[in-house]
Structures are given as C-alpha cells and as structure tokens.
Amino acid sequence: MIRLKPHKYVQRIQKRLDGIASVVVVSLVLVILGIATTGVLTNVAASQRKQSSQENQQRQSDRIANYIDDRMTSYDQILVAASGIVNVQGAASLTSQDWTRFTSSLRLDETYPEILGVGYADYVTPAQRAAYVAARQKSGQERFAITPSGVRSAYTPIRYIQPSTTTNQGVIGYDMYSEDRRRSAMQTARDSGRPAITEPLALLQDQDDGNAADTPASVLIYYPIYSTGDAPAAQTEKREALAGYVYIALRIDDMMRGVSLTSDGYYTITDITGDAELPIFSLVQGPENATDGAASMAQINAFNRTWQSKISLVNPLVNTIVSPALLFAFGLICSAMLGGTAFGLLSQRMWRVQTAHQQELQRTKDEILALTSHQLRTPASGVKQYIGMLLQGYFGNLTAEQQTIAQKAYNANDRQLEVIDQILYVAKADAGQLLLSTESFDVVALMREVKEGLQQTAAAKSITIDLSAPGRLAINGDARYVRMVFENLISNAIKYSYRDSRVHISIRKKKRVVHIAVTDHGVGISAADQARLFHKFERIDNPLSRSEGGSGLGLFLAERLAKAHKGSIRVDSKEGKGSTFTVTLAIKTVGTKNVAQLTDAY
Prior knowledge:
The protein is α+β, with helices and mostly antiparallel strands. The protein is built from 16 helices and 18 strands.
C-alpha cells in the first residue's frame, strides 16, 4: 500500500491549529479559574457583608430595647417620687401649688420631652361624688365637673395635671375609669401595688380635631395611692385602701426621638401581651422593599405588659449578578493578571476590614461611653430630686447643720451632672448623634440669660459680671449649643478668677459676623499651655485648678460647637494677668450640621 504524506502547507496549518487549540484550552482554563476565583471572592465578601449587616441590625435592636428599659426605669422613679409627695402632704391636703412645685423640679421639657403630663387622680365612690365635686369647686376649681356624665360604680377624675397647658387643663375632671383600657391598667396597678401601663391609645389631649385615626400612639402609666401609705399585703385590703393614682401620659413617637435611628430600614414596636399584636411605633427610612427579609427582634418588659421591637435594615449588598459577556471579559482579565488581581483584592479587602474594625471599635467605645453616661445621669437626677425635696421641706424642717450638708450635697450633685452632660455630649458628637438645627434668635437676650444663670456662682466668690451689648442682635444658629459655648466660657472665667474681681462680656457686630468676648482678671494661661486648651480631657495646672473641679471637656466641646456654627474661638492671655476668649460666629448659617463631622477622623 502506498501512503501519501500530507503536504507541508497542510502540516503547517495543522500545527497552527493545534497551537491555537492549546492556547484556547489554556485560555479557557484560566478564564474558568478567574471566573471561579471571582465568584468565590464575591460570595465571601457578600457573606461577610451580610453577616456584618445582621450583627449591626441586632445591635440596633438591642440598643432600642435598652433605651426603652432605661426610660421605663426613669418613669418608675418619677411615679415613686410623686407618690411620696402625695403621701407626705396627704391626698386630701394636696394643693395645686404642691403639685406644680413638684413637677417643676422634674424639668420635663428638658429631660423628658415625651411626657405630655404628670397628673393625680382621686378614687371616688358614687356616695362620695357630690361632696367631692363640691369640695373641688370650693378649693378653687370653680368649673370642676366629672366627665363624662353618667352613673358608674366608681370614678377616678383627674384633679391635677402639669405642665398647665391649655390641652392639659381641658382634661381636668375626666373619669379615667370610664374607658376600658385606662380602667384595666388602673385596676392592675391597684391590685399589684406596682406601676401598670395601658395598651396603646389616643390621649384626650390629641383628639381636639375629632380625628382619632391621625393621633399618635400614646400610653398612660399609673401608680396607686393607698390611704394606708404603704401598699397593704392582701388584694382585698388594697382595694379598700385605694385613695387615687399618680400617673404619666406620654407619646411613644416623642420618646423614640431620644434614640438615634440613622440606618435605613423598617422599625416597629408592638404590644404582644395579648392574643393580638397592638402597633405602638412604626418608622420606615430609605427605599421601600429594600430589606433582605431577615428581621431582628427583642422583647421589652414595659411594667405589666410585654413589647417587642422589630428591625429590618436595608441590605447594603449591591446586586452581584452581571451579564455573561461582562463576566467572560472580567474572567479574561483575571486569567491574564490573576496573581496581581488576587493580591490587589486581598490587600483592598484587608484594608477595608481593618478600617471597618477601627470604625466599629470607635463606635462601640462611643456607644459604651454614651450608655455609661446615661446610666450615671439617671440615678444622679433622682438623687438631685430627693435632695431638693429635703431642702424644700417636704419631709420636715432641717436643722441649720443639716441644711448646710444637704446644700453641699445638692451643689456637688449639680457639678456631677454637669460633668456627665459634657461627657454625654462629646460621646454623641463622636458617635454622629449630635445635630445642629439652625433658627434665628437674639444672641444678646441669650447672653443675658446665661449671665443671670451664673450670677449666684459668681456672687459666691464676690465676682461681678458686666455685659456690654447692643439692645438686640439676631443671628442664625442652634440656641441650645450657643448657650452651652458661653456657659462653659463664663463658668471658666468665674472658676479661674480670684475673689472680688470682675468678668466682662462684650458683644459687637462687624459686617457678617458677631464677636463675643469674655474677659476675666484671673490666673491667666501661659503661651505654652494655650496650645493644649482645646484638646479633649486636657486641664491646665494653675493655682486654682485643684480647688475648682472640671472634666477637661468644656473648652473642647465649646470649640467644636463654635466651628459647627462657622465660627471660631481665639484666646488672648498672659499668665497671672487674666484671659480673653473671643468667639466669632457667622450671623447667618444655613441648614443642619452634624457636629460629628468636626471631630477627629478614625
């Protein structure tokens, strides 16, 4: 047989085809490897980000539950203190002035803005009704009447409620036993001798327009008052000794403004005590239908009822599905630069993990600091209220020595609260929870208020405070934090001035800014120490620093707040000659600014 050899040209073509096939095979292998590597890295990143999102979601849920637990503890303390006032004065002898004086000491607008009112209601039987109404009218409540009208087995008309707003005064005389949810909670409190909270309901104060559907969810918390003082042991004795109730009316939406809900997602709180879930609070932030469906829940013991917080945050993971053509192109790039790409991806991933870890560590530190400060402030505020009650003579007259000791304790508690507040504000700023809300206000009037508020402190050292200012000067800013800046500066001027000296405040306008200078004739500050003045936790050693306490946060916070108002603080001082702190503020600022943007980077 004759074998024909292929033509050389055909052999060359065949070799080329074989080489191309080998290249194609190797390329396909590299492409597949690159695609596989990309898929693995993408899945790992997606899994880690999803896990991180779920952990953050659970932290947010736990933080809300802890916040509500803290508020319930505070409400319990208010009710116990209110019952103490009623028991000391006697329910029959309790006057409107007694109730006003007590509620004023709570500083509701500042400390508990969610509380619409703190009230007292009597327990009245049908046989006592006519005499009770006549007694109330004779005591000064001329228009007092029990509403709604009608005969019932018992009545709990509201006698007093503060603050004395128009809407609050409109509910005087309302019989809370006439409504099922209120009566149920009051009877639970009566039989247990402990605070009891209602189901979510609409307050009478929120129903002026008659549209109950649009009213915010609210609750009432009741605490029983017995004619025996302490709660009797037996349930029948509790019912026979019931004299009335102290109670708190609060709006849930206003309460939840105290916790920062900055992440996009769904936030809900429901009452799950009974068979049906009762909605209490609901908030949707960010795009709809953007959550991954996995919610984090936490149960909250709200006195006699059980609440449940539920959070479903927006999944931060973007869509990882791409078209086959793009995936193939990306695989070709990975096949050619697999080593470099892997190194780059791993390096970038490591940097992100380290950065996220540092940020999480800082956030955790700030949250712990804020939570610790809050936990310190709650009992400290309670101590202040009880010492104030001692000084005001609620529990009898004090001897001169007891009065002196109680006043010293009250002043020391004030200083403690000041330090806690400063730590709390700094922690909020570092955690991104301190926002400036600008509005127009009279800075001269504000300075007069700050001056008057510090007159007593200055008088204790025989220091005179002078103010030179125009009649009125309006600027834009957040009046709360501008006040904080100058309270710190003027308080420092008093602290570090010698007795029988003077502190001078001057306000002058120049073009689009206002210059406010605080001058003292105290110990002064050396040039070397001035560079450290505005650092966190820095205190300058001087002849008065040991006797005058401080946290080292006042000037740091003042400078941050001044910068947030597009301003600055300048110090001019010589050691032993006194100091002048000049604050320059823009007369007009725009929008809302986050003080956290001004803190040091992570």
